[in-house]
Design goal:
Layout lengths: L1 H21 L23 H7 L17 E7 L6 E11 L2 E8 L2 E10 L2 E4 L5 H8 L2 E12 L2 E2 L7 E14 L2 E23 L2 E20 L2 E16 L3 E11 L2 E13 L2
């Protein structure tokens, strides 16, 4: 029985970590339910793109930080099955902002910081963790140390950068709890420009590859449960809009998956 519990926790922890890592392409209230397909003309220049974002350190052409901005996404083919979520930017500050992700009737927040180098997520979070919480799987991982940025202030074809985190906390599933510590590293590389079509429209996008490496050690009743995951995802970013599509492949407990997330509609004030 104990061995079965250990196997269950290992499986749940692995899935949670994969989902949390791949959701990068989080004081909040529920995001607005009304959104519009506000599209940007093809070939928008960087100068006009930055004008729609917030002023100061949070200015970013490919991720417009505007309070009240919302993005509706739908994900299919992943280890968690099909689900939809809404990202909303809340509580914009001079040196950071709060991203709220709503999945069903559950909301999860993720704190971001704005630096001269770019925007950096300070927590694992996003739609997958919100969805798992709604299924009575609780993920509580705090970032104890972080370096690098998630989205640089400028992104051009050929650029490479990385972000790394040290995390600690716990995961509770099926009334069983495990303590967890570890590291997460994401390596980014812009590989070109291409046209991409999603339900929200057709866009000229910047294509970014992301390699994710997770090394987590969970402890359950004195038993160490090491979990390692390496995955590859591709994101498509559009000036004035944000990321409009993400796709990737991987394997969870011997089962392979091919996940695609697409922007359904958005509203950037």
């Amino acid at each position: 029985m104990e061995q079965k519990k250990v196997q269950t926790l290992v499986g749940v922890l692995l899935i949670i970590l994969i989902l949390a890592a791949c959701s990068a392409p989080p004081v909040s209230s529920p995001p607005q339910t009304q959104t519009t397909n506000t599209q940007v003309p093809q070939g928008t220049s960087t100068e006009s793109a930055t004008a729609v974002a917030s002023d100061g350190l949070c200015t970013n052409a490919y991720y417009p930080v505007r309070q009240g901005a919302t993005w509706n996404y739908k994900s299919t083919g992943g280890p968690a099955g099909e689900y939809s979520f809404t990202d909303s930017i809340m509580s914009v500050r001079e040196e950071g902002f709060t991203l709220s992700t709503q999945t069903g009737d559950r909301t999860r927040t993720q704190e971001w910081t704005c630096t001269p180098e770019g925007l950096a997520a300070l927590q694992l979070g996003g739609a997958p963790t919100a969805m798992l919480n709604s299924q009575n799987i609780q993920l509580n991982l705090d970032v104890t140390n972080s370096s690098g940025v998630t989205f640089p202030g400028q992104m051009n074809v050929g650029d490479q950068w990385q972000q790394s985190m040290e995390v600690t906390g716990n995961v509770t599933a099926f009334n069983e709890e495990a303590e967890a510590t570890g590291t997460a590293q994401m390596n980014f590389a812009t590989v070109g420009n291409e046209s991409v079509t999603v339900p929200a429209g057709t866009f000229d996008a910047l294509k970014v590859n992301v390699d994710v490496t997770l090394n987590i050690n969970a402890t359950y009743q004195g038993i160490n449960l090491p979990v390692t995951f390496s995955g590859k995802y591709t994101y498509w970013f559009v000036q004035n809009v944000g990321w409009v599509k993400a796709s990737g492949t991987g394997s969870v407990l011997g089962s392979s998956f091919s996940e695609t997330t697409e922007l359904q509609s958005y509203n950037v004030p």
